[in-house]
């Protein structure tokens, strides 16, 4: 469905509700379902086109607007973008894993949370954050710009990278397990050899 496959649909819906100041409780009532079901939809990364269109009608926006939503970040030219908030917005929009992103940025989660509070990043921080997000510093600093359409490819790259890191992690864990089992086997072989020697001595 257009570029929506690259968007965490639940996160996007949550973001729109927040920016339109619609409480989740009220949204649930509007849609005619329980809070639990509302939260279920907000957690889901994908969504049927028909469901998305129904939600759009309830919220009062069009499906295209939902896909390209960038409401919080619309700024008039010359107005300063709060860099920390911009970073939070991108993380929420893409549904990124904060721990993995912090690792990629070469900082702890706590340091990253401190970065969220910063209004202006230093050139070094800006460059590091943009690289970690797979986007240019221009795209980071110009929300709503035509350039943003370019980072759909980067989003795909990020998803692929996330999968790669996950597989790499699993691979390393398997290697550790294999090494532990190998050590255990060597130890057992030595113990068996020792027991055999002791048995022969007694005989």
What this model shows, in words?
The chain is an all-alpha fold. Among the domains are: 4-69, lambda repressor-like DNA-binding domains (434 Repressor (Amino-terminal Domain), Orthogonal Bundle); 80-154, 434 Repressor (Amino-terminal Domain), CATH 1.10.260.40. The protein contains 11 helices and no strands. It has helices at 9-19, 24-31, 35-43, 49-59, 63-67, 83-94, 98-104, 109-116, 123-132, 137-141, 151-202. α1 (9-19) crosses α3 and α2 (24-31) crosses α3. The chain starts with 8 loop residues before the first helix and ends with a helix.
- Note the total helix count: 11
Amino-to-carboxy terminus distance: 78 Å
CA-based shape? elongated
Task: Name the structural class.
Answer: mainly alpha
In brief:
It contains 11 helices and no strands. With 203 residues, it is mainly α. Residues 1-5, 72-78 and 145-153 have low confidence and may be disordered.
Features:
203 residues, mainly alpha, 434 Repressor (Amino-terminal Domain), 11 helices, 68% helix, disordered N terminus
Set out the fold topology.
Blueprint: H1 9-19, H2 24-31, H3 35-43, H4 49-59, H5 63-67, H6 83-94, H7 98-104, H8 109-116, H9 123-132, H10 137-141, H11 151-202
